[in-house]
Amino acid sequence: MEGLRRRPSESEGEEAAPHTRPRQSDRPRAPWRNAAGFWLLGLCNNFSYVVMLSAAHDILSHQRAPGNQSHVEPGPTPSPHNSSSRFDCNPISTAAVLLADILPTLGIKLLAPLGLHLLPYSPRVLVCGVCAAGSFLLVAFSPSVVISLCGVVLASISSGLGEVTFLSLTAHYPRAVISWWSSGTGGAGLLGALSYLGLTQAGLSPQHTLLSMLGVPALLLLSYFSLLTTAEPQDPGGEEEAETSSRQPLISNETPESKPDVGSDLSLQEKWTVFKGLLRYIIPLVLVYFTEYFINQGLFELLFFRNTSLSHAQQYRWYQMLYQAGVFASRSSLRCCRIRFTWVLALLQVPGP
């Protein structure tokens, strides 16, 4: 239980600074352990979320043999589910898996500011690990599509709760860990989609593929409780901070000498001023997520080439893997280059006619 004492002792509030510091002998290893720890946390946190998206076609086609044993199609399906359409689609669109994978996460992020900070980090991480493992088990042994979607909801709860937890935890570590977390989430996209594709292509059933991934939630708990070093109070003016121009206050009349009280409430006008200052980040982000999900769960299911050696389900898994490879490259580029005009990248993701 040593890990329970190594995190910020209270709930995640910004004022809750750790009361212990690492031993002097631990300091040379601390940067590497924290970098590896947050990369693995990002990887494990998003892994189940990505796998559920990659398995969306299998989940909804509900390819179960007698005794609830899943199997992989040996070849392309000769006829579509809907004979009146040239598209080989499931009766339920893969967007159903997307909604089950997104809506719980969205709800957690909307409700988190209301009181999630009152719950300490360790119990939240345990819930993330249990939900991730439960999602793999529930989908693997599901007797129906509805139960499978409940398993997807568990994966969404794990990912959403983990994201708000680990991102808030970065405030207790050097600023560089954010880039490692970002790279880890990108790695989850690539490794999650690639592992599901590779194992099913090798002949493993979707059910056994999901069961083989139960080690990922265990790695999440191990990374948090054993790999991360003791958190230290961070100096916001340290050398790792971004340049001054990127740290300007969102409310123009706020000066460094006259900071408002932490507990003071902003007026409606001040909140509107803050919101307007964030629009240049919000609009490209909304566009990116809209186009991402439109492509992943709207177009990929329709892209089916019949005269190939790959079945529809196999083609869908390849599309997911290739897309996640691009996500990994983009999320790992923070330490390589910085692009100021992010709206350009958002426009590039919009699918053409």
On the 0 to 100 scale, the average pLDDT is 75
In whole angstroms, how far apart are the ends?
A: 56 Å
Task: Assign the structural class, choosing from mainly alpha, mainly beta, alpha/beta, alpha+beta, or little secondary structure.
Answer: mainly alpha
Order of helices and strands: HHHEEHHHHHHHHH
What's a concise summary of this model?
The protein has 353 residues and is mainly alpha-helical. The chain is 57% helix and 1% strand. It has helices at residues 2-6, 30-54, 56-61, 95-111, 121-140, 145-169, 177-201, 206-211, 215-227, 268-299, 312-331, 342-348; strands at residues 64-65, 69-70.
Characterise the protein shown here.
Helix 2 runs antiparallel to helix 6 (145-169) and helix 4 (95-111) packs parallel to helix 6. The longest helix is centred in the last third of the chain and has 32 residues, at 268-299. The protein is 57% helix and 1% strand. The chain starts with a helix and ends in a 5-residue tail after the last helix. It is mostly helical and 353 residues long. The chain has a two-stranded antiparallel ribbon with strand order 1-2. Strand 1 and strand 2 (69-70) form a beta hairpin. The chain has twelve helices and two strands, in the order H-H-H-E-E-H-H-H-H-H-H-H-H-H. It has helices spanning 2-6, 30-54, 56-61, 95-111, 121-140, 145-169, 177-201, 206-211, 215-227, 268-299, 312-331, 342-348, and strands at 64-65, 69-70.
